[in-house]
Write a sequence for this structure.
């Protein structure tokens, strides 16, 4: 159970079991709805992006929010976020919310730590049935770079994020030699390990040999043959972000791709900026982003703790390796025991953000009862374990899960 500390916004601790989820649609239905909204904005339809400040894609489910009605009464909800800006956000909720209602929403920073943001409901529009899109304006602006590891944060008014934030394993299938060279050039400044195979049929064997964060598949023109490849990858039990790259992209192809398990369809031609933007979005979704610098203990200034912290740094790195192995083997017991150990010990050694991230991973495991479904939170925790270090020491290269190189 995740309890959010009172220091973030002066609010009482909140636990997820006290919140009600009224967005009663499947993941596929939710993604299709958000896709339709995004297409409507591009074509001049309604939506929360029609304002002076650009909002960036921020699709997250089960976001806790407390809404206080202007006339009295409080409701605690789990909602689906749609997008985010420095000044506010929009989300999907299965009911009506009065404008001018005050609210508190819980978001997680890139380092896994939670923050409670206060704001006001500015809009509520019906989408279909009981589903509504709610627009919230924050009382205080946020730094987008703390929440989204993407160059979009710069375009939307947040701090900078560079390619060096990216790590993990990307498996690319079906791409030409020219495509391969372009991808290799783009990832040269990252910690991504990029591996190429000839087609979707070879993906399963690579996934069986080591943990993979993201799969990219060239589906040609986006016909039944291409969708069969997507289906085959999902049938191999890969549950991470899967992107179909096609020579064409429209609403029908996106719907067809979603139906067989793809998370996104990207249209060719791809340029370097487009590839980097895609990788940043998918790595954020997978949790495969590097912490900004080493993760240091708040106790390190005390001279009597040096030996104690040296031992804990070693233990944190070992825990990271255990988590990565558990992600690959989907060993629920091993992952859960490791998360519990980190949650219970890290704060005492001066790493409160690590305890918070472990609590978030545990909550996700309990909600999903699946290592694969909770993989982003676990992967984020694993990379934070890798980043634990003593001042003046460099943290080790983030564990990728195999020995593949960019020239594979």
């Amino acid at each position: 159970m995740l309890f959010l500390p009172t220091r973030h916004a002066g609010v009482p601790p909140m636990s997820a079991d006290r919140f009600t989820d009224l967005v009663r649609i499947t993941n596929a239905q939710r993604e299709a709805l958000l896709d339709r909204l995004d297409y409507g904005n591009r074509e001049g339809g309604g939506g929360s992006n029609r304002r002076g400040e650009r909002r960036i894609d921020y699709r997250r489910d089960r976001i806790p929010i407390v809404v206080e009605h202007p006339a009295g009464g409080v409701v605690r909800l789990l909602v689906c976020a749609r997008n985010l800006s420095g000044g506010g956000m929009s989300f999907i909720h299965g009911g009506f919310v009065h404008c001018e209602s005050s609210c508190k929403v819980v978001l997680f920073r890139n380092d896994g730590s939670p923050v409670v943001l206060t704001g006001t409901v500015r809009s509520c529009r019906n989408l279909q049935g009981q589903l509504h899109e709610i627009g919230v304006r924050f009382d205080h602006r946020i730094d987008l770079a703390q929440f989204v590891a993407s160059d979009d944060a710069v375009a939307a008014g947040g701090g900078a994020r560079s390619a060096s934030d990216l790590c993990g394993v990307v498996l690319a299938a079906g791409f030409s030699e020219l495509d391969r060279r372009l991808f290799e050039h783009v990832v040269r400044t990252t910690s991504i390990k990029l591996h190429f195979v000839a087609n979707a049929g070879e993906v399963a064997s690579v996934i069986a040999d080591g943990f993979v964060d993201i799969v990219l598949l060239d589906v040609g023109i986006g016909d039944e043959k291409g969708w069969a490849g997507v289906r085959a990858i999902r049938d191999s039990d890969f549950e991470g972000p899967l992107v179909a790259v096609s020579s064409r992209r429209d609403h029908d192809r996106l719907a067809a791709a979603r139906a067989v398990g793809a998370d996104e369809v990207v249209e060719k031609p791809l340029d370097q900026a487009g590839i980097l933007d895609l990788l940043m979005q998918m790595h954020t979704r997978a949790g495969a982003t590097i912490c900004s610098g080493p993760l240091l203990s708040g106790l390190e200034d005390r001279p009597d703790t040096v030996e104690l912290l040296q031992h804990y740094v070693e233990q944190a790195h070992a825990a990271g390796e255990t988590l990565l192995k558990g992600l690959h083997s989907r060993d629920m017991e091993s992952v859960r025991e490791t998360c519990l150990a980190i949650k219970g010990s890290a704060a005492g050694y001066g790493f409160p953000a690590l305890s918070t991230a472990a609590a978030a991973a545990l909550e996700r495991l309990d909600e999903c009862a699946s290592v694969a479904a909770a993989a982003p939170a676990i992967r984020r925790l694993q990379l934070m374990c890798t980043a634990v270090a003593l001042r003046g020491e460099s943290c080790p290269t983030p564990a990728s899960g195999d020995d593949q190189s960019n020239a594979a």
About this structure: The domain at 163-286 is CATH 3.40.50.2300 (Rossmann fold). The mean pLDDT is 81. Residues 110 and 148 are 7 Å apart (CA to CA). The longest helix spans residues 306-329.
